[in-house]
Amino acid sequence: DTGVSQNPRHKITKRGQNVTFRCDPISEHNRLYWYRQTLGQGPEFLTYFQNEAQLEKSRLLSDRFSAERPKGSFSTLEIQRTEQGDSAMYLCASSLGPAKLFGPGTRLTVT
Amino acid sequence: QKEVEQDPGPLSVPEGAIVSLNCTYSNSAFQYFMWYRQYSRKGPELLMYTYSSGNKEDGRFTAQVDKSSKYISLFIRDSQPSDSATYLCAMKRLTGNQFYFGTGTSLTVIP
Predict the structure, then answer these.
(1) Contacts A48 to B, Cβ<8 Å
(2) Residues A41-55: what's their mean pLDDT?
(3) Are residues B47 and B61 in contact, defined by beta-carbon separation less than 8 angstroms?
(4) Cβ within 8 Å of A, B 42-101
(5) A40–B104: do the CB atoms touch at under 8 Å?
(6) Residues A12-37: b if buried by 16+ CB within 10 A, e if exposed
(7) Which residues contact B62 (CB under 8 A, 6 or more apart)?
(8) To 10 degrees, the CA torsion angle through A7, A44, A99, B102?
(9) pLDDT for B20-70, tens place per residue?
């Protein structure tokens, strides 16, 4: 395992459906982050885990969004009742220190 | 006013040129400064990471931080077509885990 992996890479869903994304961080990294990126913008912070504890959540993370990191390993990000405005690239990153390493992202398209 | 400002470009240069990419910021609490490269439809890739002021060089890339001016730069020497990508600056306070990203500068190196 040489990097952060994310699945699926691309998800197309209809408005109102639920979707779940998975992130597998670099194995020795105890910190895991979720970001969202829309076209022409930099990534925006969503949430942060240290081990299994969710320590920080952005105001962008509405109550339709939930993230988990059971046992401090992989993480899932679920979006319930998707809206067209949720269409974006969802990026996962992990770190030991200040510098974060990002995964390839999951591109969500809500039709 | 956004905390991190970055000219989105696009920037187009001939192969072999020296490229200068810049970001300005407003929060004097930022202590960590990162540059990421992002190819189309991929996750950001960490290029350079510096703490506080000064210069850091890695191959063809040099990162500069001027905290007195709240200004950071990335220089690319002998630019190559493979350098064509979007370059994102990111910053972080000493404490906390959130990164603040610029919007990215789109660079094209013409063979």
Answers:
(1) 97-98
(2) 93
(3) yes
(4) 42-46, 49, 51, 88, 90, 92, 96-99, 101
(5) yes
(6) ebeeeeebebebbbbeeeebbbbbbb
(7) B55, B56, B74, B75, B77
(8) 130
(9) 999 999 999 999 999 999 999 899 999 999 988 889 999 999 999 999 999
Interval B65-86: pLDDT, tens: 999 999 999 999 999 999 999 9
* Per-residue pLDDT tens digits for B3-14: 999 988 899 999
Rounded to the nearest 5°, which phi and psi values hold at A63?
Answer: -70, -5
* Cβ(B5)–Cβ(B104) below 8 Å: no
A10 phi, psi to nearest 5 deg: -145, 135
Residue A91 and residue A43: Cα distance in Å, rounded? 8
